[in-house]
Amino acid sequence: MMTSAGAPAPKHRRGSAISFSGFGPPPGLDDIVKQAQDLYLHPKPAKMPEGKKKLPKPGPAKLSKNASVDEWLKCAFNNQYLPESVMKKLCEICKEFLMEESNIQPVSTPVTVCGDLHGQFYDVLELFRVAGGAPSDVRVEPSPVPTNVITSDDIEPPTEITDPKLKKKLRSKDTEGEGSANTSGVSDEDDAEEEEERGRKRESSHGASLGIEKEGSSTIPGNQNYIFLGDFVDRGYFSLETLTLLLCLKARYPDRVTLVRGNHESRQITQVYGFYEECQQKYGNASVWKACCQVFDFLVLGAVIDGKVLCVHGGLSPEIRTLDQIRVIARAQEIPHEGAFCDLVWSDPEDVGTWAVSPRGAGWLFGNKVATEFNHVNGFQLIARAHQLVNEGYKWHFEDKSVVTVWSAPNYCYRCGNVASIMNLGEDLEPKFTIFSAVSERDRHVPPTTNRRTEYFL
């Protein structure tokens, strides 16, 4: 091409603008510009990816005539509760497996340890997603808006509140009688709510990954075992569906799922804080609740990971010095009001000398000296427990980090604003925490009638 002066036209450089003045736009350019303007001014919603599952919708499950445990599990992942006769059968199956387990169940690494769930079903699905998978062939799709996942390498929970404005805000909440969410991990849950030889060793087995591994997160993808530290029910909207999912996983993969009893796995507590009422509403009677309570009676009291990490719901007891003293407890009963059994599900770590009376009205407060001595006598390097709301998702207790609290119910009671965590342990037994947030409101269903649960301060 030649210019009007006869000199050759400069070559067009990539990235420079091209002017079409003087010889008109190329064919179709006006149409392209118009389409671009329309898209800018009137953007079309993005299409969902092919195969994208809809948000699990709660309701009764519709099973085939001879439905298997796999079909029950699929319905459970879709937030559907099982028919009464099937739910009772599921409870019987789980009882048979639980009867074979020791009070303290041995578990092998790799393992994911989960804290309180409290019936927050959609957050349990999120837990499995960020954990990298669960023992199931049913996939949990990621949320449309990815949840921020932070690992323990990115954040270390503060040991005290240093922001004066936050301190003032928390004090004002305390004076109003509200359950303030502090970072001490001592009584936040209380303010918001109340609050081997015989066993078969848990070996990793093969199974499809349930979730999607997040790049950069401290997950153990694939075939890890799971330990759930109790308090599966009460407070949340879907206690029945949450428990159904855990029981289906236990029935389908008994050697990979360990269910530890919490203080809410009890007849007395569930009659006050939601689970009993929910069963009555969905089944029209209390027969399923009774069957579930019989399962509660056979849940293990704790687990030991590779002989080095003790997992319990609450804490220690002045009546227990060795693991053998836990092994001989008669666990097939309602949780007593006092004694070693009671203490295991109710006690809390605290900065006390040895033992102190618990403000909960059950269990004890135990100090660093007690925890350190117990670990030394039994050859443990760590006690992992749940039972207390921690705003940061997990918290180390005492200078030597002999105890850790794991909390797995984000935005507890749908109002506390906390994050949650899970603890992953590999062969090196080095704890790695994955912190996750509650799923957004648009990614969860809320029952049409949600009665406010009774508050309790113990």
UniProtKB/TrEMBL annotation:
Query: InterPro entries, alphabetically?
Result: Calcineurin-like_PHP, Metallo-depent_PP-like, PPA2-like, Ser/Thr-sp_prot-phosphatase
CDD domains given for it? Answer: MPP_PP2A_PP4_PP6
Q: Where is the Serine/threonine specific protein phosphatases domain?
A: 260-265
Q: Name one Pfam family in it.
A: Metallophos
Spans annotated as Disordered: 1-23, 43-63, 135-217
Q: Is Cytoplasm one of the keywords UniProt gives this record?
A: no
- Per the UniProt entry, the Enzyme Commission number(s) are 3.1.3.16
Q: Which reaction does it catalyse?
A: O-phospho-L-threonyl-[protein] + H2O = L-threonyl-[protein] + phosphate
Q: Which UniProt keywords apply?
A: Hydrolase, Manganese, Metal-binding
Single GO term (MF): metal ion binding
Q: Does the keyword Manganese apply?
A: yes
Q: What ranges does the record list as Acidic residues composition bias?
A: 187-196
Q: Which PANTHER family match?
A: SERINE/THREONINE-PROTEIN PHOSPHATASE PP2A-RELATED (PTHR45619)
Family the UniProt entry places it in: Belongs to the PPP phosphatase family.
In its UniProt entry, what is this protein called? Serine/threonine-protein phosphatase
